[in-house]
Amino acid sequence: MHFQWYPGHMTKAKRAMQEDIRLIDVVIELVDARIPLSSKNPDIDTLANGKSRILLLNKADMADDRVTQDWKNYYESKGYFVIAVNSTKRNELKAVNQLIQKACKEKIERDRKRGILNRPIRAMIVGIPNVGKSTFINSFAGRACTKTGNRPGVTKGKQWIRLNKQVELLDTPGILWPKFEDQTVGLRLAFIGSIKDELLQRVEISLDFIDFMLERYPGKLAEFYGRKEEGTDVEILKGIGEIRKCLKKGEEVDLEKTAALLLDDFRNARLGRISLEFPELEG
Ligand code: G4P
User: Fold this and answer.
1) How far apart are CA 117 and CA 109, in angstroms?
2) What is the pTM of this model?
3) Could you tell me the sign of the dihedral formed by the alpha carbons of 58, 161, 154, 6, in that order?
């Protein structure tokens, strides 16, 4: 299976981010809690070198709690300040503010020693498309959304959102690209719906998804669709099609329709909270 990407955009976006990152103190990187590796762009490590790093395991409401906790430990051991959130819930984001203070403690101390008081911390949101950057910015900034306008030393056109006395947020997120050359990454992004699945690939993707479910969450598909997980992945897909009446004329199962239904059930968390990546398997 091959996924396509556009290297031209990538280079341009990277250059713009290089500019922006010079202006900020802390990088808040969003990843999808269901795939905290595949939804993370490795280039950001170079780009954000020397900055405080916060990793937001977003959409945690859709991921497996226990696994999300494992990822939190995993990334904390790599030096990130980590928090699991649901960005659609504004009141869950208060803790992010505290984490920003914690992540920038050294900078605040350093400023204080130099006699610089109350200089706001400058933060920037980064992440690959669809991880929830705009949702997070809207919820996090909320009504505090007053733009601070251009200032000397700030790249022309940059807008900052004053969150409170202590924090300013760059209003445009840095968009990074996933690591597409890796087909496992592509497949996992396809599972969560971050890559549009072509009609032809949808069945293939859903079969891979069934294989994954049988291995990591045995019994879940049976429980949801009310049919035993017996036979091959294709037979299971057909079984789902029969039970959900995804049929072509002549009572034959419409595999494409069934695949779309299955993926839609997963993407809307109707199958329950499912994580697709596990730190103990990824090393
Ligand atoms: P982006 O700026 O990083 O590209 O992502 P964006 O905020 O547009 O979010 C992508 C989708 O993910 C949005 O759904 C948004 O509501 C959803 N989303 C963001 N954060 C969370 C979260 O923490 N939990 C859950 N459950 N959903 C979240 P959308 O545009 O309405 O698309 P869809 O709902 O039709 O898939």
Assistant:
1) 10
2) 0.91
3) positive
Q: Which atom of ligand 1 is nearest to the CA of 268?
A: 36
Residue pair 266/191 in contact by the 8 Å Cβ criterion: yes
Q: What burial letters (b/e) apply to 187-204, b meaning 16+ CB within 10 Å?
A: bbbbbbebbebeeebbbe
User: How remote is the CA of residue 233 from the centroid of ligand 1, in Å?
Assistant: 30
Strands of 80-148, DSSP E: 81-84, 121-127, 146-147
Ligand 1 environment, Cβ below 6 A = 58-59, 61-62, 86-88, 127, 129-135
Ligand 1 pocket test: pick from 135, 170, 195 the residue with the most ligand atoms within 8 Å of its Cβ. 135
Beta-strand pair 174-175/26-32: unpaired
| pLDDT tens for each residue of 223-268 | 999 999 999 999 999 999 999 999 998 889 999 999 999 999 999 9
- Which ligand 1 atom lies nearest to the CA of residue 137? 7
